[in-house]
Amino acid sequence: MMKRLLFLTFLLGCTSSLFSSEAPDSVFIEHTLSSYLVPRTSYPSTLNSQPSTLTSPFSDILHFARLFLNRPYVAHTLEVNNTEQLVVNTRQLDCTTLIENVLALAICHRQQTLSYADFCRQLQTLRYRNGIIDGYPSRLHYFTDWILDNTGKGIVAEVQDTCPPFTATQTIKVNYMSRHPKAYKALAAHPDLVADIVRQEQRLCGMQFRYIPKSAIKDTPLLRSIIHDGDILAITCSKPGLDIAHLGFAVWRNDGLHLLNASQIHKKVVEEPMTLDKYLAKHPSHTGIRVIRLK
Asked: What is the pLDDT of residues 58-85, one digit of tens each?
């Protein structure tokens, strides 16, 4: 009886953002997990494992990502509660929540933990520092912080190399949130939280990461060997105060590398029709990509 009560309490903490009932999200999640039957043995054990001749080792990620195609892009879907709670919204996505929802599904599938509660646990682990909800500052707001925290948990790893194509270095200098607190609902309502955000920004500032400059993003055997289908591509930028401008999943096609993303331009989740090099060329502030892989 006690276990059942704890289970129900956990479910109540998984809050859907715009529906009074969790059913649309929970039904979608459990149906998705129970109906995908690709063997887990197809996944590589190391970062450098090459794709199988039969199937990409990360095809499960693209499978789950493509289930979200054409779902509307909506910003600020996590900013719906007066106190910080786990928000589950698979119906409307931004670039970060798309990444988190897809990875949570992929992890659940690989571990064969297929319930809605299992999904909520994975989503919380990905979204919050040390997997613990402890107010608004416990959410991993800057994506560099997200990468570092989830690397520490053993969930992802960033592909880093001093050799080509990783010929550029990003020095982190983030302060956008603390300088624009009125742009964030929680910070506007609780100015005292800004000091916590400043401390987080200061911990990140000065860190350096190798990335692939956009001039090197071409359809070459080298890039195809470095970037796998389903890798997270974090687009670096020159915009003051930010580390990452946008996120998506890598998709290789015959004509080159594409981005599957929740697009503010298209107003929905899409596989970009243009190749990534052309996409980046249309955005002057985009400088290149960092590559992150689910372990």
From this structure: 479 999 999 999 999 999 999 999 999 9
3-state secondary structure 11-62: HHHEEECCCCCCHHHHHHHHHHHHHCCCCHHHCCCCCCCCCCCCCCCCHHHH
- Running DSSP on this structure, what letter comes out for residue 72? B
Contact between 256 and 219 (Cβ < 8 Å)? yes
SS3 275: coil
CA atoms within 13 A of residue 181's CA, in its CB half-sphere: 16
pLDDT in tens, 42-56: 444 344 444 433 334
The three-class DSSP label of residue 226 is: helix
Do 13 and 85 form a contact (C-beta atoms < 8 A)?
Answer: yes
Confidence (pTM): 0.87
Please state, in angstroms and rounded to a whole number, the distance separating the CA atoms of residues 244 and 249.
14
Instruction: Tell me the two tokens of residue 204.
Output: 């990140």
DSSP string for residues in 136-190: GGGB--SHHHHHHHHHHTTSEEEE--SSTT--EEEEP-B-HHHH-GGGSHHHHH-
Q: Are 262 and 246 in contact (CB under 8 A)?
A: no
